[in-house]
Design goal:
By secondary structure, the protein is an alpha/beta fold. It is built from twelve helices and nine strands. The chain folds into two domains: 177 residues, Nitrogenase molybdenum iron protein domain (Rossmann fold, 3-Layer(aba) Sandwich); 114 residues, Nitrogenase molybdenum iron protein domain (Rossmann fold, 3-Layer(aba) Sandwich), CATH 3.40.50. Strands 1, 2, 3, 4 and 5 form a five-stranded mixed β-sheet that branches. It has a four-stranded parallel β-sheet with strand order 7-6-8-9, sandwiched between helices.
Length: 326
């Protein structure tokens, strides 16, 4: 790196660099114990993890996220400052396999309390059908360095779009925060219970709202909604696969056109953080409407709601309209 080349140039330059490092160290507000101002320092990998950390941690944590609003999580490249921030955390919450750069940095961080959200819930069989088989079936709430690649290629990492699974993750986050910060264990567990209650109500709203529909099929830009579809008896058809970057073949487009006619599909859904070009082209070619179904990988000014719960309620309204809910 540039710093190494600078240090090699002269002894004076080396002394200067060391001096600057000393000043930087003195100005750091962290204490080296994973806390800041008496609060647990939590680093979340992307929005669904950030939401859990903020809601469950409450006033006892300071939460930062590695994926800023508007950034597609799959595309994240970590900056040196973010890598350093990881090393100062008292607790890290992430979803292994979704962001390889993050996984590598977390493995190297040395932080004791690092939690893979996918280890807190069972992965559904639709993931195995996609070519991913779960390892030994154990729930590793804390990553011991030998965790499973829950979200690796071929698997579906979008567990947060199923309110039931997300509630299971919330329970595990409450328990693991209590372990990382025992002095505030009761608050973490209480906050987790409150959030689980809200997610249970959300699940009930989806269950009743999607029970009677004219069609069960919906088309999305990419296959983010497999867990949600499985939970509520729907059939997701993705233009692209699990990855939003993959391009559909002409044969796949033709297949979707035929399916739309056969299954009385009314709407092609696109999302806020990925290109909507292919979805809108397919809709135009087949005379279908377009609408947003948000995979909730980040909240921006384009989001239909200011947090996870509000956007999920907007998604439910969009699905009810598209599926002809009675």
């Amino acid at each position: 790196m540039n710093v190494r080349r600078l240090i090699r140039t002269s002894t004076a330059a080396g002394a200067l660099a060391l001096g600057l490092l000393a000043v930087s160290a003195c100005s750091t507000t962290g204490t080296g114990d994973g806390k800041e101002g008496g609060r647990l320092k939590v680093v979340a990998s992307f929005y669904p993890m950030e939401f859990l950390a903020e809601r469950i941690g409450g006033d006892h944590v300071t939460v930062s996220t590695l994926t800023k609003p508007g950034v597609e999580p799959h595309d994240l490249e970590l900056k040196p400052r973010q890598t350093a921030e990881l090393g100062e955390a008292g607790y890290i919450l992430y979803l292994k396999g979704l962001q390889p750069a993050v996984d590598k940095a977390i493995d190297q961080s040395g932080v004791k309390h690092r939690v893979d959200a996918a280890s807190l819930t069972e992965l559904a069989h639709h993931e195995e059908e996609a070519g991913h088989t779960e390892g030994d079936g154990h729930d590793h709430a804390e990553d011991d360095g030998h965790g499973h690649d829950h979200g690796e290629a071929g698997g579906d990492p979008h567990i947060w779009l199923d309110p039931v699974k997300y509630a299971e993750v919330a329970k595990g986050v409450g328990a693991s925060l209590a372990k990382a910060d025992p002095g505030n264990a009761a608050a973490y567990e209480k906050n987790a219970d409150t959030l689980i209650g809200e997610l249970t109500a959300l699940d009930t709203a989806y269950e009743t709202g999607l029970r009677n529909t004219a069609t069960k099929s919906f088309i999305t830009a990419h296959e983010s909604f497999g867990y949600l579809a499985e939970r509520y008896g729907l059939d997701q058809e993705g233009i692209a696969g699990i990855s939003p970057e993959s391009e559909p073949s002409p044969a796949r487009i033709k297949e979707l056109q035929n399916l739309a006619k056969r299954e009385k599909v009314t709407t092609v859904f696109f999302e806020t953080l990925a290109s909507d070009r292919t979805a809108k082209t397919l809709a135009s070619d087949t005379g279908l409407r377009t609408d947003v179904l948000d995979p909730l990988e980040g909240i921006t000014e384009k989001s239909r709601g200011d947090d996870y719960l509000a956007v999920m309620e907007s998604n439910l309204a969009a699905l009810r309209t598209a599926l002809g809910a009675k």
